[in-house]
Amino acid sequence: MYIKDIMTKDVVTVVESDTVEKCANLLSTHGLSGLPVVDSKGKVKGIVTEGDLIRRASRIEGPAALEVLGGIFYLESPKKFMDDLQRSMGFLAEDIMTGDVITVSPDKEIEAAATLLVQKRIKRLPVVDKKGNLIGIVSRKDIMDHLFNSK
């Protein structure tokens, strides 16, 4: 069996100029863990994952505070924290995406794709045609469902 037989064809994508906030909303709304980033012609430019968003958010340092007898004393400006948070949400997909994306052909055998996922320690493979245009995506879950539920 081939990737084209199990891939998801209706792929939720973003473009490089979409905000991090939009990416986070799409991931959450659709229950996804990654979004291919495509250009206006549908060519894969990168991928934004939950990990990318978490790494981005973890770079924001919260204000150091000290609580004494029920009172909170800020040791750093809470305004700086809010500014950092707002600036982070304004970043674009191109700022946080992984650019060197491993893709797969729709005619690749499922077992070969599974091996690739394991070897490269990735969770999804954008499926592209011969011109590099996105035509689907296959995830670990898709492969697991095929391997263990189709028998």
Unreliable stretches covering 5 or more consecutive residues:
none
Q: What order do the strands of the largest sheet run in, or round the barrel if closed?
A: 1-2
Helix content: 40-55%
Individual helix count: 7
Q: Could you describe the largest sheet, including whether it forms a barrel?
A: 2 strands, antiparallel
Number of strands: 6
What general outline do the C-alpha atoms trace? Answer: globular
Q: How large, in whole angstroms, is the Cα Rg?
A: 20 Å
* Order of helix and strand elements from N to C terminus: HHEEHEEHHHEEH
Percent of residues in beta strands: 15-25%
- State the end-to-end CA separation: 13 Å
What are the main properties of this structure?
two-stranded antiparallel sheet, 7 helices, alpha+beta, 6 strands
Mind explaining what this structure looks like?
There is one protein chain. The longest helix is centred in the middle third of the chain and has 12 residues, at 78-89. The model has no long low-confidence stretch (mean pLDDT 83). It is built from seven helices and six strands, in the order ααββαββαααββα. The two termini are 13 Å apart. It has helices at residues 3-6, 20-30, 50-58, 78-89, 93-96, 110-120, 140-149, and strands at 34-38, 44-49, 65-68, 71-74, 124-128, 134-139. A hairpin with a 5-residue loop joins strand 5 and strand 6 (134-139). Helices cover 40% and strands 20% of the residues. It has a two-stranded antiparallel sheet with strand order 1-2.
